[in-house]
Amino acid sequence: MWYLLIGLGTVIIVVLAAIAVNLQLKVRKQTKEQQAQLEQQQKQTAERREYARKSIKILAQAMLKDELTLTEVSIRIAALVQIFPLSESQLADHRCFVELAKATSHIPILEEWKKLPKAKKKELNIERERLESEYKDFILAACGAIARNDSYLQEYI
């Protein structure tokens, strides 16, 4: 009788040990998968930020060459800079882009612009040019600083 109980106890212990090992292997596999996902997300974030960083530099350089309007560069840079976890002081360096983008956000673009009557387009162009003249010096200075800084936002990649 004792041998039967000892044998049964041994079987139960072996089964429980096998279950524990199986669960431990599943947890280990799940942890590795989570780590791989995290690394993939970090890689994608770094790639997205590097693309945004390069795009901002290209936009700033194009602005300095008069290839874009102040409004267009402001809209694009204001959107791209949001990808980075910037402090308040670093955001202040980009505030002129955000403010001009916000001030001109009511002006239609692309297909909506094409649908406007000529008089309305003229009115909106005058308003846009007035707003651009208010921000011009700040935006040109910011674009110059961005274009000259080879390591611009590099610490966030």
From TrEMBL:
Domain of life: Bacteria
InterPro entries: DUF2489
Keywords carried by this UniProt record: Membrane, Transmembrane, Transmembrane helix
TM region(s), chain numbering: 6-25
The keyword Transmembrane is annotated on this UniProt entry: yes
Residue span(s) of domain DUF2489: 13-145
Name of protein: DUF2489 domain-containing protein
The organism of origin for this protein: Saccharophagus degradans
Lineage: Bacteria, Pseudomonadati, Pseudomonadota, Gammaproteobacteria, Cellvibrionales
